[in-house]
Amino acid sequence: MSEILLDARGLTCPLPVLKANRMLRGLAPGARLRVIATDRASVADFQAFCRETGHALIAFGEEGGTLSFVIRRRQETDAASHSRP
């Protein structure tokens, strides 16, 4: 499955998560979003965001100060058990 890319480099908390949330809302269930960020606070932010919304943080990496997160949009059947921010 292909990934949609969100370049959030240079943005600070909470903007990377807010922009990712907006993009995820427009994607089909099961779609993947790769977020590239530079704010170290994004690590905890994306972990909490996925835990609270039911999306899956399926990959995380860091190279040269750039962070990469791959988030899989939750299935609609899971939507009733999670709140939407």
Automatic annotation (TrEMBL):
Any single Pfam family the record assigns to this protein: TusA
This enzyme's EC code(s): 2.8.1.-
Source species, domain of life: Bacteria
Name this polypeptide is given: Sulfurtransferase TusA
PROSITE patterns: UPF0033
Organism: Komagataeibacter saccharivorans
CDD domains: SirA_YedF_YeeD
Family per record: Belongs to the sulfur carrier protein TusA family.
Record-level Gene Ontology MF annotations: transferase activity
Keyword list, A-Z: Transferase
Organism taxonomic ancestry: Bacteria, Pseudomonadati, Pseudomonadota, Alphaproteobacteria, Acetobacterales
Coiled-coil segments on the chain, per record: none
Keyword Transferase on entry: yes
Classification via SUPFAM superfamilies: SirA-like
